[in-house]
Amino acid sequence: MIIPVRCMSCGKVIGDKWEQFQELTEEGTSQKAAMDQLGIERYCCRTVFLTHVDALEDVLQYKIG
């Protein structure tokens, strides 16, 4: 859904870097280079970025009730 504010393993704040990460990867920067540029160095934080699936648009299509 939405990227977590903090890494679930180490507790480092990573939520503020998600939009910058998306912009860099859309421009053609590799994911590794984008994370290096943003200062995401720990493997647990990198895992959050690499495995995140942005399903918010899919979920918003459905109504409750």
CATH level 1 name: Mainly Alpha
Overall shape: it is globular
**What is the CATH architecture descriptor?**
Orthogonal Bundle
The CATH superfamily label reads Homeodomain-like
Spatial separation of the terminal alpha carbons: 21 Å
Class from secondary-structure proportions: mainly alpha
Helix content: 40-55%
Q: Largest sheet, if any?
A: none
Number of strands: 0
> Count of helical segments?
4
CATH topology: Arc Repressor Mutant, subunit A
Relative strand content: under 5%
Which regions have little confidence, pLDDT < 50, spanning 5+ residues?
A: none
Give an account of the 3D structure.
By secondary structure, the protein is mainly alpha-helical. It has a single domain, classed as Homeodomain-like (Arc Repressor Mutant, subunit A, Orthogonal Bundle), CATH 1.10.10.60. It has helices at residues 18-26, 31-38, 43-51, 56-59. The two termini are 21 Å apart. Helix 1 runs antiparallel to helix 2.
